[in-house]
Fold this sequence. Notes:
This protein has 12 helices and 17 strands. By secondary structure, the protein is of the alpha/beta class. The strands form 5 sheets. It has a 7-stranded mixed sheet, sandwiched between helices. A 3-stranded antiparallel sheet has the order 8-7-14, with no helix packed on it. α4 (90-96) links the parallel β3 (80-83) and β4. α3 packs across α4. The chain starts with 8 loop residues before the first strand and ends with a helix. The site of pyridoxal-5'-phosphate has 14 residues, from α3 and α4.
Amino acid sequence: MNDKLKNPVFVTQPDLPPLGEFTELLKQIWDNKILTNNGPFHTQFEKALADYLGVKYLSLFSNGTLALITALQTLRITGEVITSPYSFVATTHSLWWNNIKPVFADVEPTYFNLDPEKVEAAITPQTTAIMPIHIYGYPCNIERFQQIADTYGLRLIYDAAHAFGLKVNGESILNFGDLSVLSFHATKVFNTIEGGAIICNDEKTKQRIDYLKNFGFADETTVIAPGINAKMNEVQAAYGILQLNYIDSLISKRRDIVKFYRDQLRNIDGIKFLDDITGVNHVYSYFPIFVEKEKYGRTRDELYEELKQHNIFGRRYFYPLISQFPTYRGLVSAKAENLPIASKVALEVICLPLYPSLNKDAIQITTNTILNFKG
Ligand SMILES: Cc1ncc(COP(=O)(O)O)c(C=O)c1O
């Protein structure tokens, strides 16, 4: 086998529903001329998605970032919110857009989720909420976070952008905390091109979310708050309905690829990866590997560049840490001394290509390259 791929392989590639099926639904949109504002596909998709995920109340959004921003508005969060620096920037940006001060706490060393003990130590009288992320689709310590939230009277909003379909002991992870927020961006396990959702536990909260995502309109003449325009349109919703028919087989293909990666990489000294957790239905959002320089004999960046030479384009998710960006680096909590584990893992991680149609040769060349490059 040639050791350089003919065509570049990127960290992900979106899955699209069959075009013929999509054009059938587009014809219906063209006929009924309802393009947005809670149209028939929106209603159908919202219900089908809530059923699929095993959640009671779900509100569709045009993207995950607007859903995060609206989630904070829903609960009237102000002051300080404790969150993880080891995530995609949108998590903390949603706080900034609400004039909330982010307080970064470190992650735990096993799955790199926000560490509840570090969160508890960072609480001040200004703290109003905690915003953890189920990073790479590995569940946070949900019991401990709920306990802390209950003890200190804080709200708990999960950024669940990586946790579509994730279940723990048969229960959707999205049912924990006050709100959970999903992203259906093209790069995600489940995509509606762009899209997102907020999951909540009661009808009144869903109603408030639905008002807020539509400028605050409660009826023709009543505007209850300075809401935003974050509605999912009919084209996205129709596309989403089709995607739901294929999602299980797509996740199963991801599972096979991850198994192959793990089998090939298990015995390379200095290359670590995450295994499945008993009782968790994994959805395989990402396949991160962690390069330990002392044992592997090369740095993460050297391996990252070497992979590129073979036409394999992984991503250093999540590097740099959010706390290192100019907007946030002046915060006391952003100092590297406050975030030793996140700072270390950000220098070790590469997410390898992972998507259902990724071919075996590409995976084999990736793992061969990692093996052969060992110093
Ligand atoms: C952890 C996390 N939060 C939020 C987002 C933002 O979602 P969106 O791209 O749908 O706005 C993403 C992905 O893009 C993400 O990975």
